[in-house]
Amino acid sequence: MVGPIAVTSYGKLQGRGEGGVNVWRGIPFAAPPVGELRFRAPQPPEAWSGIRDASEFGPVSHQPADTRGTRFGGKTPLHSEDCLYLNIWTPAAYDEPLPVMVWIHGGTFVTGAGSQPQFDGTSFAEHGKVILVTINYRLGPFGFIHMSPFGQEFASNQGLLDQIAALEWVKLNIAAFGGDPQRVTVFGESAGSMSIAALLAMPAAKGLFTHAIMQSGAAQTLPSEQGKYIAAALLAELGIAPDGDTSLLHTFSSEQIIEAAARMTKKLTGGSIGMLFQPVVDGNTLPVEPAQAVKDGVACDIPLLIGTNRDEGNLFFRAEAPEADFDESLKALEQMMGTGSLKEIASHYSSTWEGQAEILTDLYFWGTSVTLAESQLKYAPVWMYRFDGTIPSHPMLNKAVHSAEIVYVFNNLSHLTHLRADIHPDMQKLAEVMHDAWIAFAHRGNPATTEVLWPRYNLEERATLIFDEDTQVVYDPESEKRKRIATMLA
Question: Which residues does the annotated region (Disordered) include (predicted)?
């Protein structure tokens, strides 16, 4: 069967018709960042003649193995440095240019891909009448190593530059798929949300999107000197001195880079929680720390929808997991957040695994998101949410843990069967409510719907929509805790 054909500036693409939706997969938005293009800014893709098949997903960035078998639905996709591909879902029929939503996946900057089953865009396209785009970007040592101090040919924040390259491709080509390049919403979770914070502050991303949704992640970066130290440690593992011949970097195999990065990570973290691979304030691609840049108005006129899950930390600290030392966990959190001592605020939490989960939720996720929301209020409308949805009988989803909201946002609850979870009508109702709010935001820049009133966030009332079996607006939830955290983060 002949699939739908889109004519892009690089050539023709043949996708697949899947019911009421057309899908194009594995579209190259940049040249393969391999060989001498390793550790460099992404380059435009090459044009092709004829019609290119776009029925299958492209390779994913090299990443640690999916030990639980849930990341890619039990399958093992091809891993490769040649990973810069995007995917597009569109309604099969539409009358006018449609708003575009670009999903930036999470995974602590070391795992994930736009091809993960839970990110399937069918419902957004068919029910929401939006163009849904998912993207890959370079991860781990290939995408987030501060290489620019070691040669002008190298880039830093390679993964973020990949995201910008994807957004540039969308701006140039999305009209061929029925999308409106002047109505682009970026949305992402965890590292994807932290990426959006960085994109708000990056000069090269200016004008590439009009709305932003940030799920469970605010500004998170390394200072330049720390990034340089980590890069030098990776070079040392590869046998290259800081002033050595860095032109050799393109001669190593992917496996050698990955193995060196693993050795370096173990040496620098000692096995504790930490994020060595993440955006870096390099003074060039990312000139200013994102939280400060937003406070200074760099994201002027970009409406923001932002929120967290009630029990984020319970994904990382659980009863069945080996209990981490509280002081060590606190020290790691201080390093990740770049704060001074957290001992005073930590005195308000128990030293059990539950206390460690709660302090991670409150400080790393919720507190920083509230701060970012407050900073943006002067420049554009802001809406705040909290996801409280749980599955009481499930060993992990009995809490509203980190990333639990994603399948609700995408209205893809069937993915929960991979986690051995039963799907109930109240869960489907919650998915529809949340899904509709994201769609409304993409269409109108306001997530309120006829079913759910959602007041804008402000410093006086702090209206927060609590997504749960009984979704409702709560004003300044956990007010005293919020004030205590704000004092520490100030």
Answer: 52-73
